[in-house]
Amino acid sequence: MYEKILEAANRLEGIAHKTPVHTSTLLNELTGNQIFLKCENFQRMGAFKFRGAYNAISTLPKESQNKGVVAFSSGNHAMATALTCKILGIPATVVMPDDAPQVKAAAVKDYGATIIRYNRKTESREEIAQNLIDEFDYTLIPPFDAEPIIAGQGTVAKELIEEAGELDYLLVPCGGGGLISGCAVTAKSLLPECKVIGVEPALSDDATKSFQTGKLQSIKSPNSIADGLNTHTLGKITFPLIKEHVDDFVTVSEEEIKAAMYFLWTRLKIVVEPSGAVALAAYQKLSVKGKRVGVVLSGGNVDVRKAGELFKDITV
Fold first, then answer.
1. 298 counts as catalytic
2. Averaged over 256-274, what is the pLDDT?
3. pTM (2 decimals)?
4. Which of 155, 172, 313, 315 could form a disulfide with 180 if both were Cys (CB 3.0 to 4.6 A apart)?
5. Whether residue 243 lies in the annotated active site
6. Considering 215, 269, 298, 312, which one is annotated as catalytic?
7. b/e map 18-48, b = 16+ CB within 10 Å
C-alpha cells in the first residue's frame, strides 16, 4: 500500500499544497511533549480530503471522466470532489444532506458541482447516488473506502514526517478511516516504532468499538459537533488497514473538542473546524512526557458565524 501512497505523492506534487507544520512553545509546555501540528486546514478547499479526491479522480479512465462523477458527503469530501472536477474539467454531482454546513454547501456550488439534497433521517445517500449512476453512468468517488482515496490521504503523514523527523506518536482523527489508515501505513513504513493513535468523538465512536472488539461495528445516528467524523462505520478496506497498522484508539468529549478548537483559534491563531481539533483534543489522554508527537489538524471549514455558539460556555 505504501507504494501507492508514494505514487499519490508524485501525482499531487504541484497540485496539492504542502501544508505547514506548526509548533508552539506554549503547547509544548502544557503537554510536556514536543508537538508538531500538521495543518491541513491550509490545504486546497480547506481540508485533507482534496488529496484523496484528486488522486482518485485524476486516475480515472478518460471515458469515465467525460461522463462525470458522483460523490456523497456532508461537506469536505463534497468540496474536494467539486474542486478536483473543476480543475480537471469533469462534471460533478454531489449528494449532500439538508443539514450540511452552509459554508460547505456554498463552496461546493461555487466550485461548479450540481448538488442533490436529501433528508438523512428518511433517505439513503447511497441509494440516491446509485440511482444517478444507473441513469447517467457516473463513477462513484467514495468518501474513504477506496485505495486511491486512502493513498492520497496517506501523503499527509509522509509530508509531516519528512518535515518534523522522528515521531514517537502520531494522533489522527478518524471518521470512515481513510485518513488514519493511509497515515498509519505511511508512519509504520517510515517510522516502525511510531505509535499511531486514532481519535474519535465519544458520540461517534464506531471505529473505537470496532478496534476494541476486532469486529466491524456501526452507529445508527452519530451526532458529534465534529460533523466530518459522523460516519456510521469504518470501511471494508479501511478497517483491516487500521487493525494492522494502528496501535490504539481514544475518544474525546464534545467539551474537549470545543476546548481544543478554542485553544487553536485564540492562542495559536489557527482556524480549524471541530473535526480538525479532535486529534489535539486527545493530547491529555497521552500519559507520556518528553515525546515527539505529530497531530493532524484535518480541516478548517467552519461557519465562523456559528463558532461563537461553540465557544460560549468555555471558561478560560
1. yes
2. 96
3. 0.95
4. 172
5. no
6. 298
7. ebebbebeebeeebebbbbbbbbbbbbbbbb
